[in-house]
Amino acid sequence: MLALIQRVGRASVRIEGAVVAAIGPGLLVLVCAEQGDTSAQADKLLSKILKLRIFSDAQGKMNRCVQDLDGAGLHGGLLVVSQFTLAADTSGGNRPSFTQAAAPALGRLLYDYFVQQARTAHSVVATGVFGADMQVELVNDGPITIPIRLAPAERC
Q1: Among 55, 84, 117, 127, which one carries the catalytic annotation?
Q2: How does the average pLDDT of the chain come out, rounded?
Q3: What is the DSSP string of 41-64?
Q4: Which of 6, 41, 55, 83 is catalytic?
Q5: In the chain, what are the domains?
Q6: 35, 85, 99, 116: which is the annotated catalytic residue?
Q7: 138, burial (CB in 10 Å: exposed 0-12, middle 13-18, buried 19+)
Q8: What's the CA gap between 99 and 150, in Å, rounded?
Q9: Beta partners for residue 5, in sequence order
Q10: Is 84 a catalytic residue?
Q11: Is 83 a catalytic residue?
Q12: C-alpha–C-alpha distance, residues 29 and 33, integer Å
C-alpha cells in the first residue's frame, strides 16, 4: 500500500457540491492499495502515518505526530481519501498505467479496513467515499507533503 500525506490546516471532501467530510488541523491521507496488498500492509501503513513526526513542537522542530495534537487539545484529524491514481506508472509514455493498483473489490476492502483501523486508533477520522468523483480542498500547512510506500521488506 502507499499513501501521500499532507499536513493541513484544514481539508474537506465535496461530492456533487456537498461537503461530505471535513477536518481542521491534521493530515490529509490519500491512500492506494496495490495488487497483492493485505490487511497487514494496511496496519503497517497506518502505524507509520500515526507516528510520523511532522508537527512542530514548542521549539518549532518537527517532532510531534498527529496523535500528539490530541494531548495538546488540538484534536488533529485524519481525512482519509481513496486514490488509486497513486499507483500510476508513467514510465511507458504520456498516458499513465494503473495496472499496479488493486482491483476495485480488493481496493475497497483494504480502504474500508484501513478506515476502520484508523477509527479504532485515532479520535478524529473523516473519509471520502470510495470510488466517488470527489473534489478535495485543503490548506497545506508548511507546505508539507510526504509520500509513503512500504519497502518490499515491509510488504509482508
Answers
A1: 84
A2: 93
A3: HHHHHHHHHHH---EE-TTS-EEE
A4: 83
A5: 2-155 (3.50.80.10)
A6: 85
A7: middle
A8: 18
A9: 29, 146
A10: yes
A11: yes
A12: 13
